[in-house]
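Example for tutorial group B:
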């Protein structure tokens, strides 16, 4: 639980350099935020804040949104990319990272919360309608996960997945596949970017494909997709997207923690932001977020 089938790069850079632990870091000096003329309305402050993120679309745009807001408010902000969730939670729990804006609860990141939860602060929930999905193009005549195995040949025996460490991958592999007897398809993991590239190519050629996905996600606005029914609820009910922080963050950065605690985005707001970044600005995250902020009040997100 990134849309850029073709994303121009990591946050505020022209090229992504994914590293598992050290990550790809982007630092901006105070006052150098990208959205010119935007009044973020946050109390002024100072200090260094590191935000960890995975290359998932909602994480990418939310991280850049807050990077620009906090930079404009006087902080030195580093956005550090991770390719795996485990090292990110480890970094957060050890204090090497300050904030993570994409904690899916109570299911997707349950394993990590059981391991590291008592070493973290849960600052707030900013979206309450997140869901794990398995989806196909609307032109594919398959309606349910229960029908997937009977149509294995249609999909070449493949379910195109995302990162192996993702909670979505675990839910499909350990929940959906055994529950529905999906023995003739293999869940192939790689990366979200690779999955989206395959999805884009298949739809362009009007070929069948089945992918692991989630909502909210800009792919649902760009493509005509349908979620396969999950009558046994193996992927779980709707989840929340939460902001997590290291222990002590609220004490050290009280104003920032308070603002993050009130942060909220509706499905429509998030979809609009992702569409601006990944479609209208072709994955240029910094420019896309800055453009969205010209037309949307940041203060509405932290009211």
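The residue assignment follows.
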């Amino acid at each position: 639980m990134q849309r850029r089938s073709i994303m121009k790069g990591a946050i505020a850079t022209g090229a992504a350099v994914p590293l598992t632990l050290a990550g790809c870091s982007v630092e901006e000096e105070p006052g150098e935020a990208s959205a010119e003329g935007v009044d973020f309305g946050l109390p002024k402050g100072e200090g260094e804040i590191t935000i960890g993120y995975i290359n998932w679309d909602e994480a990418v745009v939310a991280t850049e949104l807050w990077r620009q807001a906090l930079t404009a408010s006087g902080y030195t902000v580093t956005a550090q990319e991770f390719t795996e969730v485990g090292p990110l939670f480890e970094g957060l729990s050890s204090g090497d990272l300050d904030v993570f804006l994409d904690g899916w609860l109570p299911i997707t990141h349950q394993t990590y919360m059981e391991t590291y939860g008592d070493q973290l602060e849960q600052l707030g929930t900013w979206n309450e309608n997140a869901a794990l999905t398995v989806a196909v193009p609307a032109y594919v005549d398959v309606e349910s996960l229960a029908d997937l195995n009977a149509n294995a040949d249609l999909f070449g025996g493949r379910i195109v997945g995302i990162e192996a460490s993702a909670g979505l991958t675990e839910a499909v592999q350990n929940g959906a596949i055994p529950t529905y007897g999906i023995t003739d398809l293999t869940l192939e993991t790689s990366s979200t970017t690779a999955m989206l590239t395959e999805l884009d190519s298949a739809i362009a050629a009007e070929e069948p494909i089945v992918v692991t996905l989630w909502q909210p996600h800009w792919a649902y606005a760009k493509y005509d997709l349908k979620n396969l029914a999950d009558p046994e609820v193996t992927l779980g009910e709707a989840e929340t997207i939460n902001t997590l922080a290291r222990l002590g963050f609220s004490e050290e950065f009280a104003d920032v923690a308070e603002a993050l605690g009130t942060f909220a985005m509706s499905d429509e707001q998030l979809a609009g932001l992702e569409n601006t970044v990944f479609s209208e600005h072709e994955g240029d995250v910094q420019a896309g977020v800055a453009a969205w902020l010209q037309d949307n009040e940041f203060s509405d997100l932290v009211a």
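The radius of gyration is 19 Å. Compare this with the pattern of hydrophobic and polar residues in the output above.
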